Amino acid sequence: MLSKQNRLPSVVIPVAMRTGKRVFADAFQMTIVSNTLPVSRFACIVSKKIAKHAVDRNRMKRIVSESIRLLLPKIKPGFDCVIVAKKNFSDSNTKDVETVIHEILEKNNLLMP
Q1: What is the CA radius of gyration of the chain?
Q2: Cα 103–Cα 108–Cα 113 angle in degrees, nearest 5
Q3: What does the pLDDT look like over 57-113, one tens digit per residue?
């Protein structure tokens, strides 16, 4: 689970979705906005259209959250990211999702050298 300082508050999510840069991967859409804070913050959204059962939606959120937590020391501070699931990946493991998120962050220069 991400620490409280690395979680994006729900009131900021709509603003980030409207103003941010959108990046697409096979199972995700990531919206990236810069902020003035010394940390990067993340949120994950999984719609009922993607997974009917709450168990699956929560599992996908936990997988994304754990992947972000493992990558957090490498991520540059000062960004708000909203990750939206575009397909059901509840059967995937954390390592696969971590690889995809790492590639997205790397392409957008959000990782420290």
Answers
A1: 13
A2: 80
A3: 999 999 999 999 999 999 999 999 999 999 999 898 899 999 999 999 999 999 998
Residue spans of the domains in the chain: they are 4-107
Q: Distance between CA atoms of 38 and 34, rounded to whole angstroms? A: 11
HSE value, Cβ hemisphere, 13 Å, CA-based, for 63: 26
Rounded to two decimals, the pTM is 0.92
3-state secondary structure string, 14-52?
A: HHHHHHCEEEECCCEEEEEEECCCCCCEEEEECCCCCCC
What amino acid is encoded at 100 in this protein? V
CA dihedral 16, 100, 68, 84 (to 10 degrees): 30
What is 4-107's CATH number?
A: 3.30.230.10
